[in-house]
Amino acid sequence: MEIIDKKQFLENFQYFDDNIVLEIINIFIDEYPERMETLRKNIDEKDFDQLKFNAHSLKGVVANFVAPEVQELARQIEIKGGSKDMTGMETLYEQLHEKADIVIEELKELRKNFE
Questions:
Q1: Structural domain boundaries in the chain
Q2: Picking from 3-12, 47-56, 69-78, which range would have the lowest pLDDT averaged per residue?
Q3: Closest alpha carbon to 31 in 56, 1, 61, 66
């Protein structure tokens, strides 16, 4: 099951220099473990302001990669952070992590188009 809309992804980046696309992908892959760790910490500490901010940031980055399912999960976490609502947060985080892991694998494959 694909998370990234590869056709749309390639269309979005068709006019970009390959090195720039590679850099965008590599930065996200490199930062991903820390992003997820930070979200986990925000949830554990019930730091709603940072949770909202970090989920929003992730949502924006993922939007670049045309991964609507992951974008939506990040949006739901952002909203819950904003309303200080922990209901279902664990499930949302687990789903986000699972789907975002797939995005990382798909980006590693897509990266080959720009190397």
A1: 6-109
A2: 3-12
A3: 61
Integer angstrom CA distances of residue 60 from 49, 57, 65, 78, 88 = 17, 5, 9, 11, 22
Contact predicate 23/111, CB 8 Å:
no
Q: Which of 7, 2, 112, 100 is nearest to 57 (CA)?
A: 100
Residue identified by tokens 């965008």 is 24
- The verdict on pTM exceeding 0.85 is yes
6-109 carries CATH number 1.20.120.160: yes
Measured distance CA(50)–CA(47) in Å, rounded: 6
What residues have CB less than 8 Å from 78, skipping those under 6 apart? 51, 52, 55, 56, 59
**If we measure between CA atoms, which residue out of 43, 61, 41 comes closest to residue 103?**
61
